[in-house]
Write a structure and sequence with these properties.
279 residues; 56% helix; two-stranded antiparallel sheet; two-stranded antiparallel ribbon; 6% strand; single chain; 10 helices; mainly alpha
Length: 279
């Protein structure tokens, strides 16, 4: 039943206001790609020489970025659908959250969300845009019109990697297509479209790179944007020192867990282990 609810949520997501954002993203992506292939850029010159490796590789990267964009945009970020859904799956294989958490550990008591009235697992937060609680909430991204949470954060990071390759490659290709002309009017008429592609890729390249670096850092320390920005307002982090992260297990372990572990995690148990070790 939960599977069909998730699929219904994904289907409805296609027809919300975010449909305009996704449409604009796809149109800009393919228009820019079309300009780079039709204008006298490195990609066009490779085509004319019969060397199709670079054009095919660039087209594949752009196509992969679009597919990842829709995957991240439409997939379930980790919605808490019911009270029973607040019971996480431990990495050690325990099924019941109550067996993991000491009864006298008051900092681990779950509370009900004031909006959807569901029990919130640790690291979950209610998103007012999605109107749902999201596990390991990172942020709500208007670019994809979806939350970034426990289920899609790794795919969001992968999307940023591929998108950065696409826009930086597009920036280089756009620059290679700018040609000289005897007058400003002729120069603008000959380079108008490629200048538009150049401006677009020049704006998005540093933005995507910045986001990529931020989320690589957050993944390496097992933190989220919400926890990093709102640390003083989060109950379970108030009990820790200012530089202490109760979920940090070292860069290698954090990245392995971020990239390779599927399913939900009982963060209460990890937090409990940390606090007992600290004591």
């Amino acid at each position: 039943m939960q599977f069909f609810v998730i699929r219904l949520v994904m289907f409805k997501n296609m027809f919300k206001s975010g449909c305009l954002v996704r449409t604009a993203h796809v149109i800009l992506t393919w228009l820019t790609t079309l300009v780079l292939f039709l204008h006298n850029t490195d990609l066009r010159r490779c085509q004319e020489r019969g060397d199709l490796v670079q054009p095919v590789a660039f087209f594949s990267v752009v196509l992969l970025s679009v597919l990842l964009y829709f995957a991240v945009s439409l997939m379930d970020p980790g919605f808490v659908l019911s009270d029973s859904d607040s019971k996480g799956t431990s990495l050690d294989g325990n099924e019941e959250l109550e067996q993991m958490i000491p009864e006298d550990h008051s900092s681990l008591k779950q509370r009900r969300c004031g909006y959807c009235f569901l029990l919130q697992p640790m690291r979950a937060k209610h998103c007012k845009a999605c109107k749902r609680c999201v596990r390991r909430f990172d942020h709500h991204c208007p670019w994809i019109d979806n939350c970034v949470g426990e289920r899609n954060h790794k795919w969001f990071l992968l999307y940023l990697c591929v998108q950065f390759v696409a826009v930086s490659w597009g920036l280089q290709a756009s620059w290679s297509g700018v040609v000289s002309a005897p007058s400003w009017k002729q120069w603008l008429s000959q380079n108008g479209l490629v200048l538009g592609a150049l401006a677009l890729t020049a704006v998005f390249s540093p933005v995507v790179l910045l986001l990529l670096c931020i989320h690589l850092y957050l993944a390496s320390v097992n933190s989220t944007t919400w926890e990093f920005m709102s640390r003083r307002r989060i109950v379970y982090l108030k009990r820790c020192d200012s530089e202490e992260n109760p979920f940090d297990r070292g860069v290698v372990c954090n990245l392995w867990r971020f990239c390779c572990v599927c399913g939900t995690v009982a963060w209460e148990r990890i937090y409990s282990r940390h606090t007992h070790t600290a004591v």
